[in-house]
């Protein structure tokens, strides 16, 4: 039929034009005005790179949506998915299946404390939805507290818990969510000037929020261990331990969302390890299998799991613990251990990315702050280093966002795929990044930052 013409190019591969025209006609894209986007047609990827149909290769400093922690097309994971597909593609969650048991065992072995039971989902959002349901049933309380600077997912409770502007159009999706300010010294809400002051005042603010809400009505506090899309905010020492203490004292379930921070991103298996805290529920996705097959989940403490020992947990998913997803998680976690991938992320962050990004900040007037750990960094771009005025206004779009659009375009022209959010570029390459790839990426960022510098008070004055 006419629909089938012009579908393939030389070598039987789909042609760029066919891919793009079918995409334009039939794919409804996330978070986008459908008429205003022009998605890159991607032909393939390997390791830290992916490429388009015109032979342009991009160093992936986004890890897609910060999920390809082991890079693109890791051969051990690809082979495991192929082997599992030949054996058993699907089996309902009510059965015990070898790869599901093994994935749960390996995850439980890595999670801190007694987080030893794993509820599988298809991604991070669903895991957040189930974590808050578990917390509400465990405590018998209705309310949930989360941070303004946060992202927790795109549905019902998860989008309401989200603090960033993606929440605004869906604010009434779920009742009982209250937001508070977490610590963020560079843009302190508490007029603090030291990490210790920021930490103490952020904890006092949380206590006050709880007192006004009525702590006995609060089921859970949910936090990203290291805040991801809302800015790569590493909490000051003592903050998470302080929240843990508050939750213990008031009978509140402490949920850590490690969807982005978990499985190597911070240079440790979980960001919670860096702060020596154990939540009651830990939410994961992304890095657990680098997103090769959709997978997420909740790790439950013994106490929360016990609530559902003699009473059924009222929730489930057709594809919970999907065999292909679990096989890919087993292979991912084994490869990460065998190849020292978590250690690599820690080393590259400490010896190459951290110092390299700080050197860029010293050279470029547009870089206000460098923050991060492991392969989880942000450059906070400003119009003026002294006033810290963001390079673009909060939640800017269209012409107001031009400085960031110029910066992103400069990155792509140079062959680096950036992760840009508001006035920040996040430096979030795979955990497998080599030293020479890191140096290449830093050089490309250096070049692209001149496009941001041009929009600073220094750049526009000169
Ligand atoms: N929590 C955090 C911290 C995330 O970064 C994300 C995804 N960016 C989610 C939850 C939602 O995960 P998913 O997109 O897999 O549903």
From TrEMBL:
Keywords: Aminotransferase, Pyridoxal phosphate, Transferase. Pfam families: Aminotran_3. Residues 1-20 are annotated as: Disordered. It comes from the Bacteria. One of its GO terms (molecular function) is transaminase activity. The keyword Transferase applies. InterPro entries: Aminotrans_3, Aminotrans_3_PPA_site, PyrdxlP-dep_Trfase, PyrdxlP-dep_Trfase_major, PyrdxlP-dep_Trfase_small. Signal peptide: none annotated. Belongs to the class-III pyridoxal-phosphate-dependent aminotransferase family. This is Aspartate aminotransferase family protein. It comes from Streptomyces gossypii.
């Amino acid at each position: 039929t006419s629909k089938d013409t012009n579908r393939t190019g030389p070598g039987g591969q789909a042609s760029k034009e066919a891919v793009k025209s079918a995409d334009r006609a039939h794919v409804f894209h996330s978070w986008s005005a459908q008429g205003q986007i022009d998605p890159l047609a991607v032909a393939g990827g390997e390791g830290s790179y992916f490429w388009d149909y015109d032979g342009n290769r991009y160093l992936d400093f986004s890890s897609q949506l910060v999920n390809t922690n082991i890079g693109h097309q890791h051969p051990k994971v690809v082979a495991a998915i192929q082997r599992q597909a030949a054996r058993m593609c699907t089996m309902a969650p009510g059965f015990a299946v070898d790869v599901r048991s093994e994935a749960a065992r390996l995850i439980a072995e890595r999670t801190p404390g007694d987080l030893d039971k794993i509820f599988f989902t298809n991604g991070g959002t669903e895991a957040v939805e189930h974590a808050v349901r578990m917390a509400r049933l465990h405590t018998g309380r209705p309310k949930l507290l989360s941070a303004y600077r946060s992202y927790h997912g795109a549905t019902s409770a998860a989008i309401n818990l989200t603090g960033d502007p993606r929440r605004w159009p869906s604010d009434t999706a779920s009742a009982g969510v209250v937001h508070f300010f977490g610590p963020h010294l560079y843009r302190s809400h508490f007029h603090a000037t030291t990490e210790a002051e920021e930490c103490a005042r952020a904890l006092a603010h949380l206590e006050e929020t709880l007192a006004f809400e009525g702590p006995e009505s609060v089921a859970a506090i949910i936090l990203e261990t290291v805040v991801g899309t809302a800015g790569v905010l590493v909490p000051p020492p003592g903050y998470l331990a302080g929240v843990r203490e508050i939750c213990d004292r008031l009978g509140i379930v402490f949920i850590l969302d490690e969807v982005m921070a978990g499985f190597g991103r911070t240079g440790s298996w979980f960001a919670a390890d860096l702060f020596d805290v154990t939540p009651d529920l830990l939410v994961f996705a992304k890095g657990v299998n680098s997103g090769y097959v959709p997978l997420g989940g909740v790790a439950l403490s013994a106490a929360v799991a016990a609530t559902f020992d003699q009473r059924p947990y009222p929730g489930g998913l057709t594809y919970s613990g999907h065999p292909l997803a679990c096989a890919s998680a087993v292979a991912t976690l084994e490869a990460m251990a065998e190849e020292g991938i978590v250690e690599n992320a820690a080393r590259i962050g400490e010896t190459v990315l951290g110092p390299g990004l700080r050197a860029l900040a010293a050279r470029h007037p547009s870089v206000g702050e460098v923050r991060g750990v492991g392969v989880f960094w942000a450059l906070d771009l400003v119009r003026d280093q002294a006033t810290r005025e963001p390079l673009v206004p909060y939640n800017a779009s269209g012409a107001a966002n031009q400085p960031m659009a110029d910066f992103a375009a400069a990155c792509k022209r140079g062959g680096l795929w950036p992760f840009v959010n508001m006035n920040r570029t996040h430096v979030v390459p795979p955990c497998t990044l080599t030293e020479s790839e890191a140096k290449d990426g830093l050089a490309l960022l250096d070049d692209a930052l001149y496009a941001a510098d041009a929009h600073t008070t220094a750049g526009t004055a000169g």
